[in-house]
TrEMBL record:
Its cofactor is [4Fe-4S] cluster. Belongs to the NifH/BchL/ChlL family. It is an enzyme of class 1 (oxidoreductase). This is nitrogenase. Its EC number is 1.18.6.1. It holds the Pfam family Fer4_NifH.
Length: 251
């Protein structure tokens, strides 16, 4: 089982990227589990017809306990969808919510029961506090990828995430695989991200172009891979999926 945490600033297109990669990997015949680690709980919406699914925290609040069938929903292409969820607005810590969700999935032996070939964690990277760093430092992920654009705040978040990964990496936890450039068509975008990658001692793993099909697919509650499988954009997600399936040593 391979486990990859994909981080990025809110609004950068991280969840769109993760859900399309999940669908692309599933289309290759692998069993995929996607775990949304954003309190908005919208990571898997493009895999579930645009509908929200019950979050781990909501189920625990409502029922006091949970079974795996309460928490895991099978979405498009057979992707196993999980949303950690967040606290009631104004009460509690979103990071602590992620910890609670991860502990419950571990308690229920989710991975042993479902046996996914690959697990993708979709993690908000604006603040890399204890909870949001859980996939890195808790041994949950083997690798980390960071979705960014050439926008200043996106690159700032990427630098913070990189620092956290390298700090925990010294203890044998997840390693940084590289940056995924999700183009916003800002001036000299590739140059800006290439410079940032060099300064962070990493690389641009893949560059995703800006394409209106992404928004058109999302309007249908679908991934591009599902809605427009023969498109050039779907091919990009499929290429990124294949790249992530490869081992670091194979690149």
């Amino acid at each position: 089982m391979k486990k990859i945490a994909i981080y990025g600033k809110g609004g950068i297109g991280k969840s769109t990227t993760v859900s399309n990669v999940s669908a692309a990997i599933a289309c290759l015949g692998f069993k995929v589990m996607q775990v949304g680690c954003d309190p908005k709980a919208d990571s898997t919406r493009n895999l579930t017809g645009g509908q929200s699914i019950p979050t781990v925290l909501d189920v625990l609040r409502q029922k006091g306990d949970a079974t795996l069938t309460d928490l895991i929903v099978t979405g498009a292409c057979g992707v196993l969808c999980v949303e950690a969820g967040g606290p009631v607005p104004g009460v509690g810590c979103a990071g602590r919510g992620i910890i609670t969700a991860f502990e419950k999935l571990a308690e229920l032996n989710a991975f042993d029961q479902y046996k996914p070939d690959i697990v993708l964690y979709d993690v908000l990277g604006d603040v890399v506090c204890g909870g949001f760093a859980m996939p890195i430092r808790g041994g949950y992920a083997d690798e980390v990828c960071i979705v960014t654009s050439g926008e200043m705040m996106s690159l700032y978040a990427a630098a913070n995430i990189t620092q956290a990964v390298k700090s925990f990496g010294k203890r044998g936890y997840a390693s940084l695989r590289g940056l995924i450039l999700n183009a916003k068509n800002v001036d000299n975008e590739q140059g800006l991200v290439s410079q940032a990658a060099a300064e962070l001692d990493t690389r641009i793993l893949y560059q995703l172009p800006r394409d209106p099909l992404v928004q058109q697919a999302e309007a249908q509650g679908k991934t591009v891979v599902e809605a427009f499988p023969d498109s050039a954009m779907a091919a990009c997600y499929q290429s990124l999926a294949t790249l992530l399936l490869q081992s670091e040593q194979a690149l």
